[in-house]
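To the wet lab folks,

You asked to see what we're planning to order before we commit. Fair enough. Below is the target structure as tokens, and below that is the sequence we designed to fit it. If anything looks off to you, flag it before the synthesis order goes out.
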């Protein structure tokens, strides 16, 4: 996939559209399920079908999702992420940990994770500036570390 074919957050307006909390949940639900209808996604995010349908159309208007052709029987519109590079999809991950840490350990973990992510961010930007855009996409990475009592 070339840089031109890669779509996603490309400017302030697209970022604003993507920044809506429900749209972020819908995007994540599509990432996990690969395809889905407004009805299926409404069940997953706990919202009405009409509201979900509206937000799916906004995501599509900005090129973040596309219709998934060849799905279903034609009565419902199926959606998929606009960017479906199989290699990047296979490399995607989701992990959760519940670790017994002290405040000092949590602070150290935060510093180490920040340094690791920053290393890859700097390398990726340098590669882009050098013209190496083949197969390269923006990747959202969220890290949280906080006390959690069960």
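Sequence we intend to order:
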């Amino acid at each position: 996939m070339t840089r031109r074919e890669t779509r996603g957050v490309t400017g302030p307006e697209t970022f604003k559209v993507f920044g809506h909390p429900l749209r972020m949940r819908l995007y994540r639900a599509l990432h996990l399920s690969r395809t889905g209808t407004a009805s299926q996604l409404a069940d997953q995010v706990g919202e009405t079908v009409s509201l979900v349908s509206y937000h799916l159309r906004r995501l599509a208007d900005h090129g973040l999702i596309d219709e998934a052709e060849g799905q279903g029987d034609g009565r419902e519109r199926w959606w998929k992420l606009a960017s479906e590079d199989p290699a990047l999809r296979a490399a995607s991950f989701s992990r959760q940990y519940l670790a017994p840490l002290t405040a000092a350990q949590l602070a150290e973990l935060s510093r180490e994770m920040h340094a690791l992510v920053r290393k890859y961010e700097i390398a990726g930007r340098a590669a882009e500036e050098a013209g190496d855009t083949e197969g390269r996409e923006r990747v959202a990475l969220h890290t949280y570390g906080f006390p959690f009592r069960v």
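Structural context that might help your review: The beta strands are 35-37, 65-67, 78-81. Residues 113 and 127 are 21 Å apart (CA to CA).

Thanks,
Computational group
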